[in-house]
Structures are given as structure tokens and as C-alpha cells.
Specification:
Layout (H helix, E strand, L loop, with lengths): L41 E13 L4 E12 L3 E7 L4 E7 L2 E2 L3 E3 L2 E10 L4 E10 L3 E4 L2 E8 L5 E5 L19 E10 L3 E4 L2 E8 L2 E12 L6 E4 L2 E9 L4 E9 L4 H7 L3 H12 L8 E5 L12 E5 L10 H9 L8 E2 L6 H17 L5 H14 L17 H18 L1 H15 L3 E2 L1 H8 L4 H13 L17
Parallel strand pairs: 1-12, 19-20, 21-22
Antiparallel strand pairs: 1-2, 2-8, 3-7, 4-5, 4-8, 6-7, 9-10, 10-11, 12-15, 13-16, 14-15, 17-18
């Protein structure tokens, strides 16, 4: 998610301060943020979602096929699902009677599932999906367009259960298949690659597959009427070409083609800095609705119509969401407390892009941002901000400044090699702050680890180092 509402690369003012935590250099050993979401009883292998959406009525009829492996002996399977009714459920083909506890779906196993055993779940469900109330506002499934005949999904961090049953943890990643039926004339967009588009009577079924692996909150689905543009980019790190596709309302076609037009150049530059592009495709969808900020769905970023003006005013956000494909989607979070690993990296990617195209250098931006941070409240440890402050602007800005401080300390050659190594080591996996500190400090732990701990775990803002002689432009 992007916390920016203007062209400036300096994020907005920090949110109102809450009670400050004690400042020290020791990472806390606290419980998982949002522990009422997700289950530690199993890990998911795949979701196969069969969905039929009626835009006139706003109703969704779904059937979810889930394959998983038990992490411990399981007398029951727990999944997250909100608002929607379940009308039948099976575990390994045997019918079970589902129970509900708030937004938890509880399926008693017909026989205990042993630790390490694979199992399958099939759930039939439906109703009128809608956004969920969360500490961050209304999140999840929503409707778009003046006639409300389109849909969007913006799930970060807790909205995935608004439209399918899932193990809603950021570290439970799986393969996804989407088979979505809509009335003829309506279009469907989802993560991954379009495999098939078939017509039956007055309906069309669109099938997408994404091998991922992908966390549930990054799964996306958009319906409506779109114009399209296909593009290709060179993945210089992998020696291959990536095919992308953008979608947007027809009336915004000219502006959207211009505003998104440098995605191929961005992808080429980012593969040099971060390593091979991690997925099979990429694209952006512009929905017919105003959004506070774009959303970083895996392989398919979403922008509001208010982010498109034909003048590339919001191009920094286009860069931000593309960087998330490496940092946030491919290398994802073990816990929401580590969100600076997503947002600090994506924000720094904006600064690198500005430097790359000859606008403000990353160093100029970092020092301007540092001065803004220094004038504000210093009561936040960005590597453990607390569950209600994971989207505080300081997580983004100070996280990016921490990376710039690391770049100045290491020099460009070692810094970008370290970033590529971080993605290579954790591609398709989940990671946490402690692992990044160890990775970055591998060759010089006595110098790098104290620097990063001060930036990430101290409340007081550290100084930015001065540029070294081996600092060069990105």
C-alpha cells in the first residue's frame, strides 16, 4: 500500500502520536499482530476459487477448493470468512457441519488430521460481499463505477476474508486459480495469467492462474468494463522478456497509457538493482473509483481514477507499486510488525527512480525527508510500530532513510549486491527484520548491525551519514 497523496516524494505528516514504547536496541518478543486473523494449525498449498458474480444484485456465489498441510495434529480446521454464508463444507470429501465464531469458520475434521498430513477442504458459500470494518477503515471487497456495476478488492491488511475463505496470515502463501463467471460484456481481472475466456449463454467465465506463492491479502479481483494495453519489458537480470497488461476505463485510455507508459523502463531498471523479476507477468488496473492510495496486489497493482491525469503526476506511485513485487510480494512478511521491509523498500525505490530519470537524487530526497522527520514526533520504532500504526508515514519515510544510510555506509556496489542477495535468498518466502539485519551485516556486522538497529529500533532519529567517495548515481 502507498501512503502518498501528492507528487512530492516526501510522505505526509506523521499520524498523531500514541503512547511511546521504551527505546532500546533489542527487538521485542511480542505476539503476532492481528492474532485473531489466520491459523497456525496448517499451511496452505493452493486455492482454487470458482466464483459467479451478479453485478446487478451485487451477489457472489462461490466454491473454494483448498489444499493444505497440517502443521500439528488438527481436530478442526479454522479459516477466516466474513459476511458471507456457508451452505456446505467438506474435508477430504466427507461432509462436515461448519461452525462460526465471529469471522472464523470452524470445520470439525471427520477424523483427526495428523501433523504433516495433507488434506483438502471444499466450501460452498455466497451472499453480498462488502468491505470489512477494520482499524484502518473499510477494507476488502467494494463496488466501483457510477452504476456500481464494477468491483475491486483492496485487502491489505485484513480484507481477504471479505470475499473468500482463507488462512489470513501474511506468511501463509499459496498458489491461486480464479474461475470467475460474469454477465457477457463484463470483464474480469485477477492475479497471474489469463488461461481461458469462455462463453456460455449470457455469461462469460474468465480463468486466471498464479503459481505465486501469494499471501491471501495480495489476491485481487476486478470486474467491470475496461480498455487494455499490452507491453513488454526486458528483464536484464534474467535475460528474458516480461509481458504486461494494463487495464483502465475507456474514457481514461489516453491519460492512463501516458501515466503508466514508463513501466517497461522501470521494470528494466529495477531488475538491474533488485535482481530478476519474480513473477510471470505484471500489470496495473485503474478502477472507476477514487482511492486514497494505490494497492500493491501481486502481479496486478491497482490505482484509482484520481491517480490518472495524463501528466504523470503520480508516477512515483507507479514505481512504488512495482517495487513491491520484489519487496512485499515475492519477499513477504512473516509478521505485520515488519512492514517497513515492504514500505521502506518501495519508498526507496521511488527515490531511486527519481535519481535514474535525472530528477532529484536519492541523497537529496533523503536529506529533505530526514529534516521533516527531525521536526516531528520521535516516538516510533519502525520495526515494531504497533498494530495500529503499521501505516504511519514514518514507517515509509524512515524505512527508506534507513536504506539510504545503509547505502552510504556500504557504497553502491556492495549495497545493490546486498539487495539482490536479499531477494535471491528469500524469493517466494517470508522474512523478518532480524534476518535482514543479519543479511546486510554479513561482511561487516560490527559496523552495519548497530547502524540498522538504531534506525529500526530506536525512537530517536539517527543522523544520515555523509556520502562516501564510492557513491555513484543509480
Amino acid at each position: 500500500m502507498t501512503r502518498c497523496s501528492r507528487r512530492s516524494l516526501i510522505r505526509g505528516a506523521a499520524l498523531a502520536p500514541l503512547a511511546a514504547a521504551a527505546a532500546d536496541h533489542t527487538p521485542p518478543r511480542a505476539a503476532r499482530y492481528f492474532a485473531n486473523h489466520g491459523s497456525d494449525g496448517h499451511r496452505t498449498l493452493s486455492y482454487d476459487l470458482h466464483l459467479a458474480y451478479d453485478p446487478a444484485a451485487g451477489t457472489l456465489d462461490g466454491r473454494a477448493h483448498i489444499r493444505a498441510v497440517a502443521e500439528r495434529p488438527l481436530p478442526q480446521v479454522e479459516l477466516d470468512l466474513a459476511r458471507l454464508a456457508v451452505h456446505d463444507a467438506r474435508i477430504d470429501g466427507a461432509t462436515v457441519r461448519p461452525g462460526r465464531k465471529r469471522n472464523k469458520l470452524i470445520l470439525p475434521a471427520p477424523r483427526p488430521i495428523g501433523a504433516g498430513a495433507p488434506f483438502s477442504v471444499e466450501i460452498g458459500y455466497g451472499g453480498r460481499p462488502g468491505p470489512l470494518r477494520t482499524p484502518f477503515g473499510q477494507i476488502g471487497w467494494d463496488r466501483t463505477g457510477d452504476a456500481h456495476d464494477g468491483t475491486l478488492v483492496a485487502s491489505q491488511p485484513l480484507g481477504a476474508p471479505s470475499w473468500f475463505p482463507c488462512n489470513d496470515r501474511p506468511d501463509d502463501k499459496a498458489e491461486f486459480t480464479f474461475r470467475v463467471t460474469v454477465p457477457h460484456g463484463h470483464h474480469v481481472l485477477a492475479n497471474g495469467t489469463l488461461l481461458e475466456r469462455s462463453t456460455a449463454g449470457s455469461s462469460e467465465c474468465w480463468t486466471y492462474r498464479h503459481r505465486g506463492p501469494m499471501a491471501p491479502y495480495l489476491a485481487s479481483l476486478y470486474t467491470g468494463r475496461f480498455a487494455y494495453e499490452t507491453w513488454t519489458a526486458e528483464d536484464t537480470a534474467a535475460g528474458r522478456r516480461i509481458t504486461g497488461r494494463n487495464a483502465f476505463p475507456v474514457r481514461l485510455s489516453r491519460q492512463a497509457r501516458h501515466d503508466l507508459g514508463r513501466q517497461p523502463a522501470m521494470l528494466g531498471a529495477f531488475t538491474e538493482w533488485f535482481g530478476p523479476y519474480p513473477f510471470e507477468t505484471y500489470g496495473a488496473v485503474v478502477v472507476d473509483a477514487d482511492l486514497d492510495q494505490p494497492v500493491e496486489n501481486q502481479t496486478l497493482s491497482v490505482f484509482g481514477r484520481n491517480h490518472i491525469d495524463g501528466d504523470r503526476t503520480w508516477e512515483t506511485l507507479v514505481a512504488h507499486e512495482l517495487v513491491h513485487q520484489w519487496y512485499g510480494n515475492s519477499v513477504s512478511l512473516r509478521n505485520w510488525r515488519d512492514i517497513w521491509l515492504n514500505e521502506g523498500f518501495a519508498t526507496y525505490g521511488e527515490w531511486l527512480w527519481s535519481e535514474h530519470i535525472g530528477e532529484d537524487s536519492a541523497d537529496t530526497i533523503a536529506r529533505n525527508v530526514w529534516r521533516t522527520l527531525a521536526k516531528g514526533s520521535q516516538n516510533l520504532r519502525i520495526a515494531d510500530p504497533g498494530p495500529h500504526r503499521i501505516f504511519d508515514d514514518r514507517v515509509y519515510n524512515r524505512g527508506a532513510c534507513a536504506l539510504h544510510a545503509l547505502r552510504l555506509t556500504m557504497g553502491d556496489g556492495h549495497f545493490f549486491a546486498m539487495l539482490r542477495g536479499w531477494h535471491h535468498a528469500h524469493r517466494g518466502k517470508s522474512a523478518e527484520t532480524a534476518a535482514f539485519i543479519a543479511h546486510a551485516g554479513h561482511s561487516r556486522p560490527a559496523q552495519i548491525e548497530p547502524l540498522l538497529r538504531a534506525w529500526l529500533y530506536d525512537e530517536r532519529l539517527p543522523p544520515l551519514p555523509h556520502p562516501g567517495p564510492d557513491r555513484v548515481r543509480a
